[in-house]
Amino acid sequence: MTTEFILPDQSKTGGLGTYIWNQAKLLSDLGFEVSIYQPGSINQKFYYFGNKVLFREFKLPSFKPTVFQILLHFFIKRIKKYSFVHYLKLKSNAKNINSFLEEEFKVRPVDIIQYVNLNGLGYFPVSSIPNIIRISSLTDFYNELGKGYYGLRSEIVNAQIKFEKESYKRAICIVGPSTYSLNQIKTNPTQLKLHLPTPIGFHFEKAELIKRNQILKIGYFGNIDYRKGVDLLIDATSKLRPGSFDLFLCGRLNDDSQVNSKIKDQVFSESFIHYSDSIPKNELISLMKEMDLIVLPSRVDNCPNTLLESLAMGKVVIGPNAWGFEEVITDRVNGILFESGSLNSLVDAIDYFMNLSVEERIEIEGNAFCLVQEYSGLRVSDQIVKIYNKCIDHYKSVCAES
């Protein structure tokens, strides 16, 4: 159950959409019946992967606040700094989603529901079916560390944060792609929190080591903004010897705050930066394969797909010592870690990479390629199924006690 499922062959597919697609394909290949539901503007359905995965978009009733609610909205907005109307809209959507799923699963019974909790989708879960909330959005951290949230007005963002936090408090089972992210969620005594691995959707052959006598190619792939630490990357690479490298940035440019406007100016003014907007997946993978080094300097993240895909190509990745990177990367063994948010530490990490011998670099790349295989195929699918069964058992025991 998600709000962000987009066809994976489209350039606008986000990290959450890619995760859902990869997980659905993996489980369906094992013989599980998987359905993806998304509230949207129309009613439609499609089947994917040889008619094994149902994608169902359904239309929600429009929300119309009462006069009293509107008056109360202006009072709360002034005192509490969040949009009461938007909060009520999210609550209405969650209630209507619950009603739709209850009727849907009378016809199509399921064993477990996974709510991907952007905008608090799991606030009103179907109580008769074991369900889990998967951490999909760290909106409060993105808003705090990014000094804004993708151009949304602050009162809208605050309403979303409030509703998402309430959803987590009501959940019986919470799963997430990293322990670090899970630890940001406050729990109650009856809740179960489990690390749910992120599957890789593609099988990669290890990319060949590019000769070191050419200009170094450094790549970044993702949203280009302060939240993802792109300013750190630009500032760090600007300290390198001119003409010794090219920096490739690929992703959506966000211009929703003063710091992001500065990043945008840097992207188009620095001669060593090569920028491209979001591109189709096959072109993206081809570009990633050309890189000598991939740097993902996020200030806040959730164990991104790009990290796993880069390692699966046998690329050296530099990432922060937080947000799930530290659970995947062992520093200077299968990648390189730096102190999260620290420019000096990132500079040191890049400098360390540039001073590696060919043999040392080949060893790190080989370790990256081998270790990340744990996130593909039967290994990760077995883990996912075991976690689902734990959540089902926990859900039933909590409901029996109550």
From TrEMBL:
<dbReference type="Pfam" id="PF00534">
    <property type="entry name" value="Glycos_transf_1"/>
</dbReference>
<protein>
    <submittedName>
        <fullName>Glycosyltransferase involved in cell wall bisynthesis</fullName>
    </submittedName>
</protein>
<feature type="domain" description="Glycosyl transferase family 1">
    <location>
        <begin position="211"/>
        <end position="361"/>
    </location>
</feature>
<dbReference type="InterPro" id="IPR001296">
    <property type="entry name" value="Glyco_trans_1"/>
</dbReference>
